[in-house]
Design goal:
The protein has 268 residues and is α+β, with helices and mostly antiparallel strands. It has 3 helices and 14 strands. The protein has a single domain, classed as Glucose Permease (Domain IIA) (Distorted Sandwich), CATH 2.70.70. The strands form 2 sheets. Strands 1, 2, 3, 5, 6, 7, 8, 10, 11, 12, 13 and 14 form a 12-stranded mixed sheet that branches. A two-stranded antiparallel ribbon has the order 4-9. The longest helix has 26 residues.
């Protein structure tokens, strides 16, 4: 008797799944290699810009603490995440080790915070239709976030960025504001914006664990081909001292608004 093994059915599905997983990992590795800073080329000086929000915030995943702050892929080398904090904001729900596994994003102080243009520029990309999903601030939620992140990375960049705006600031510099609230965008592609102009609101769309702003600068308009650029903000630290730089992880800070333009001066 000769036994034969069919490659159809469950086995074929399993092999196809493994092949898709390996192909996805290889594509991500290639992205990281291609978008990493060029070897032997020193990093450019940070671009000093006003922060695109007001009030007191806390820095997370900061390039002041580690570079790359996220990963080199998607031009995130010098990206930062920030969440609303301070005495004038309600407390953020703590990480839930047991229960609840998810929460509604409206429970978080960052959700709905106004975000503005860091400088004069032109909108080169805008997406505002992705849903604001439940938070992932629990062990079960983080596992789901990792699985979701891998699946999202295989599709269009908007699946990772969620609702977002990309601004051309000129001189080969582009700003990205990601994870915005669905339906909050106030600008469209091709629109010229002025520094401080409202762009949208902080949300929990895309590859996001909980409501926060993901912000980065890059040297091109496409997150899949550009490289990240360092930046700095004028801000006050928790002691009230003025700083120019990027706050480190868990540091609270308050942006210092840019000086107003002289009367009659027009945007770029």
């Amino acid at each position: 008797m000769v036994l034969t093994v069919s490659l159809g059915g469950p086995l074929a599905l399993y092999l196809a799944s493994v092949a898709a997983l390996l192909a996805g990992l290889a594509a991500q590795w290639a992205l990281v290699r291609r978008q990493a800073p060029r070897a032997g080329v020193p990093a450019p000086d940070p671009v000093v810009l006003p922060a695109p929000f007001s009030g007191r915030w806390t820095a997370l995943n900061s390039p002041a603490s580690k570079v790359p702050s996220h990963t080199h892929a998607l031009a995130q080398t010098y990206a930062i995440d920030v969440v609303r904090s301070g005495p004038d904001a309600p407390p953020e729900p703590p990480f839930a080790w047991l229960w609840p596994p998810v929460r509604r994003p409206e429970r978080y102080p960052s959700f709905g915070e106004l975000l503005t243009a860091p400088a004069d520029g032109t909108v080169v990309a805008a997406h505002g239709r992705s849903r604001d999903h439940l938070t992932r601030m629990s062990p079960v939620g983080l596992l789901l976030l990792v699985l979701e992140g891998f699946a999202r990375s295989q599709g269009a960049s908007r699946h990772l960025l969620g609702n977002h705006v990309i601004l051309d600031l000129g001189d080969g510099r582009y700003a990205v504001l990601a994870h915005l609230r669905r339906g909050s965008l106030r600008v469209g592609v091709g629109e010229r914006v002025a520094a401080g102009q409202p762009l949208g609101e902080c949300g929990n769309s895309g590859n996001s664990s909980h409501p926060h702003l993901h912000y980065q600068l890059m040297d091109g308009p496409d997150v899949r081909t550009a490289r990240g650029l360092p930046f700095a903000w004028h801000h006050r630290d928790a002691t009230g001292a003025e700083r120019t730089g990027v706050p480190a992880n868990t540091e609270e800070f308050t942006p210092i608004p840019a000086a107003p333009r002289p009367a009659g001066e027009r945007a770029g």
